[in-house]
Amino acid sequence: MTSQANPRPEPSPLLKLALDLGPLIIFFGAYAILKDVYIATGLFMAATAVAMIASRLTHGRVSPMLWFSGAMVLLMGGATLWLRDETFIKVKPTLYYLVVAGILAFGLWSGRPTLKLVLGAAYPGLTERGWTLLTRNWAIFFVVLAVANEAVWRNTTTSLWLGYKLWGALPATLLFAVANVPMLLRHGLTSTAGEPDAPPSS
């Protein structure tokens, strides 16, 4: 009789946070030190690829959201380096936010809250109504982030845009995830161990 392989344990919250945010932090840090958006973009692409490989090695899979986020980084980052035009890496968050918002909105329209497929294990006990509200909230939030990203990169310098990403969009995303917790608890969430989960930022 053959024994089944033990499933890989879920990654720790700190490891997941490092995989999600590590490439962004490297991007910000590289630009802050080198003041060269093209070198920073190349390092961002490399760090994203490493994060995807690390995700595969540590818990046996790469989530659909991480695949999509990684593909966007590699595609738009590659265009930035190939054409020597930083517009591509600046508009990448806008495209990411709008595509994710569209996917979430389609899930609501079709009656299948998309976030449940991606983050189901992170919110045990959450009711269907809770998933619907959470999906709606994130769809609206991502549209707001898309508009904000367009406003900032089109009207400020690269340094200010990166400052907004680091000190504006990223904290806002984390705070928004926390702000949803009371609603989640009212709709059946049974555990809030660790940080509240969220779709990967961009």
TrEMBL record:
The gene is yciB. It comes from the Bacteria. InterPro entries: YciB (IPR006008). It is found in: Cell inner membrane. Plays a role in cell envelope biogenesis, maintenance of cell envelope integrity and membrane homeostasis. One of its GO terms (cellular component) is plasma membrane. It holds the Pfam family IspA. Keywords: Cell inner membrane, Cell membrane, Membrane, Transmembrane, Transmembrane helix. It is a multi-pass membrane protein. This is Inner membrane-spanning protein YciB. The keyword Transmembrane applies. It comes from Sphingomonas jatrophae. The chain crosses the membrane at residues 41-59, 65-83, 95-111, 131-152, 164-185. HAMAP family: YciB. Belongs to the YciB family.
